ABC transmembrane type-1 domain-containing protein (Streptomyces griseoruber), 301 residues
Amino acid sequence: MRRRSRVLAAWLFLAPALAMIALFTVVPFVQGILLSFQSWDGVSLDTPFVGLDNYRYVLHDTQFWGSMKNAVLYGVVGLVVANAVSMVMALAVHRARRGSAFFRTVFYLPGVFSTVVVGVMFSWFLDPNIGVVNQTLKAVGLDGLQHNWLGDPKTAVIAVAAVFVWYHWGFGFILFLAGRQDVPKELYEASSLDGARGLAQFRYVTWPGMSHVTGIVSVLTLLSGLQIFGTVQVLTNGGPAGHTEVPTLHIYQQAFQYTEYGRAAAMSVIFGLCLIALACLQLWASRRLGGSTDSRTEKGR
């Protein structure tokens, strides 16, 4: 009887949260899937069923698949570059004897700003006429390196990726720092007695000890890179000529600029399935990597 009353009380406490999730997550998700099989302009009450026409359009939309390539690029840059920078900073701050609190604040600071603030700030920094970057190059006599960083297709993607790394490294830095502090000191003392130093300690002690944190940060950073929106919209709005466009921006334009809500819903379904598949693959790879490093560590002991 007591167990039933406890279970009932638990469900009563969970009911408001479950209702909110159902209302604002599950219902829109189902409606989005249904809308992907319909045609709607966002105003009329008529939503005719069009079958797979929206999906056929998406499969032949070269602009959408080009934006998917850009999203993969940003995701890989976030996964490799942003995580590597975050981990290096976390390890350096952990070893610092002085000023660690200051560096924690400075390294995490970019993540405090909103995407709009970051976009406007770097739009000014990279402006070809009055931007800080070009003005600094001119001041030091490197006029030949001045460039229209966001207007040239060759540099626009790199510039957006660099801004993404700067904006997201604080999140990974905090988690990596917490993960490094959770690695027992005894493991480092034991490895030192065995003659392990530097890279050997990182490979056999630090990396296995932080494998679970690394997996979580990798998945979240990868998904952030794939779902990038605000930074691209403010910096380039997908330009020049669509070279920096990403799926989220393309879906937004299809729905709110061209009023093709059915096509936008079909793109969202395809993009969402790709995100789920990549997240599952990344989690599987992280667990395999974490398991193999843990087994090597146990064998080494």
